[in-house]
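The aim of this short unit is practical: by the end, you should be able to scan a pair of folded records and say something sensible about each. We start with the first protein, listed as its amino acid sequence and then its structure tokens.
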Amino acid sequence: MTDSRSRAMSEMELLDCTLRDGAYAVDFEFDEDFVAELLAGLDETPVSRVEIGHGIGLEAERTGIKAGNIDHFAWCDLARSTLTAKPWGMFAQPGFTRPATIRQMCDRGMSFVRVGVEPERVQEHLPYLREVADVCGEVHLNLMKSSATPVDRLLGALDGIGPEIAGVYVVDSYGAMTPETVERYVGAVADRYPVVGFHGHDNLGLANINTVTAFRAGATLLDGTLNGIGRGSGNAATESLAAISNLLGEDRFAYQELAALAELCRVNMRVIGQERAMQVLGAVIGIHSGFFPLVEELAVKYRTDPARLMETAVGVAEQESPRAADFHAAAARIADGDRPRPLQLTN
């Protein structure tokens, strides 16, 4: 594990993904004037890089997911006109993002792409990752739902990931990791790969401390969103990470400017409220917030408790993290178990 005492704060890079992860919080609807103002503001800060676009990923609408009101070409135009001194990128997933589209984005000024893959599926997507690396000069691998995979198996899943991948991200999709688990996962990946990142969620209120812990464990690419606005309970707050950096001895990221931009986001982003109980349950049981609407629907239909449904789905899942079919199977199992049994008569 990297000794944080030997690493300078100058190694820390902040990536602001307010205009990507924050898209979930506003149902993928952004006011373009606000976007332009925020991007221009970020361009004047020392934040290292900016991620924009559809929250789920570039071309997510190809699978029937709601499209954002700003399409990916318009995002490129907004970024090119405002981020004159800052690299910017987008998020991608193999299930719907075509390498040809990534090439188009790079031709329009995109500097990097982050590809989200669950650890257990990395091996099947190695050809995709290599194809993306052929069309984009900087490709990062985001290990979605990292904590669902034991760390030794996560490392094994990375066999074949070579220097064509610029960095590997540990991703706390459930917001379930503690500082101890962050240290273990990040430290293990950092022992194997020279560039490691961390993306945290705040279900249990640990996103900021987890991100600082990730840096101390060897991660140099740290994600945040302004005012912590993001999917579910949100993310580590960019302005808070900058302020913590200041308290640790160096105001590298102009925390006061970022705090002002966080206020701009608080005022202008119409954040959709989230049910707090589901966020906590999801973190502890290990369920991604994308399944919460299905859980709530099935819980009402089968007259069961959401926590019981989640726990049963985890139990029936054959892979590391449950999928939609597992929740339906769990609901059926609960219904079958609760159904009165016929009276068995004996002689």
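Turning to the second protein, read its sequence before its tokens, just as you did above.
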Amino acid sequence: MSIVYLVSISIILFSNNQVTPCRVEECAGWFQKTKDYENLVPKATERYCQVLQTYLKCMNDTQRFCHGNLRFHSSELVMRRHWKEFECEKWESCNDSNPNKKRPVNTCYFNPPPSNRKIKYCSLFGDPHIIMFNGSIQTCSEEGARPLVDNRYFLVQVTNKNVRGEALTTTVTKVTVLIRKHNCTSSLTYEATSDEEGLPRGFVDGTTYQMIPNSNSNSNSVEVLWQDNNYVEVSLHFIHSSIHIRRQGPYLSVSVKAPTIVLETEGDVANELCWTGCRKSAQISAEKAIEKPKSFAECYNRRVHVLKKVAEDRCKNVGTSGTFYDACLFDLMFTGDDYLVQLARHAQSDFRRLAPHHIQSHLIQQRVRIQKQSSNNETETFQKCLPSASKSIISSAFLAVILLLIPMI
């Protein structure tokens, strides 16, 4: 075999890989990603046939660059067999032989119902406490607006404010739900604030539901399910997701239930509370505060409004247990506000009704771990204490005296 021949073959192979490569990996990647995203399985449905048709067109476009590629030929053979087996040409949207055919534009497809293991749940309530998508819970004190959940379908943003005038005491006072434009819905906004008399019955534009566009079906793709002035569910039926908002007095709580595939995003989730929780500097050890209320109050300039024994009786009487019992104790002891007790009770009810079993089990296990850690670190003290009000007053008075004496020196 001559050197010239070898060089020629090398140039051809190099050129094919660099200039006009076989795109079988790209076609297969798109096909698999679309199947996963829409929970599609190989069967005789119009949607699967549409995706299959796009895949086969992608393979056809790259065919002349894939001679000798075993994966290309085996994949194309399997997919053409699917096309024939599922009789995809019977669907008008997949039948290219009809020159007068009008393809459906922006068709709304409901995602198939996900399995229980692929459901995630997040909740924010009380002073405030957050149950994250991974089943962990945090107590924290943050002021301002932050996204709770943000993905291609919807955004839930919460605003925390200090409504009591005490240090490190914040609660949810505003919840904004933005439903992004999609084939199944137009852009919609739901907004709830704690200073209103009750939760709104519909979106800000006055509507309460969105029917499926370009469809003869009477089904709603999105709707506001108003229960009463204190409870509303915003349901996104086409992606099997829901946002639950509750109100008690001047406080709000919010819960999100959605499939994993809906929540996945290519963007950064570092700022989303349901994924990453509160900033480390804003986190509070609620368990330690309950065990050592006096030390906690002195460290963070808080007041113990209700004695621990009284709070225990009250929280038991409303039926809270486990993590929600701890949240109830913390909120009642350090605010004295019974509205927060009711929010803890409702948060527990929603969690048991909406959260999948594996997340409920994880939350129980985490509480046991935290209790063990607390018992092993009984001597651990609170960190980053705030200067006490009395010390601040004394320091201010001392500084004022010094300033008055300076002109006399």
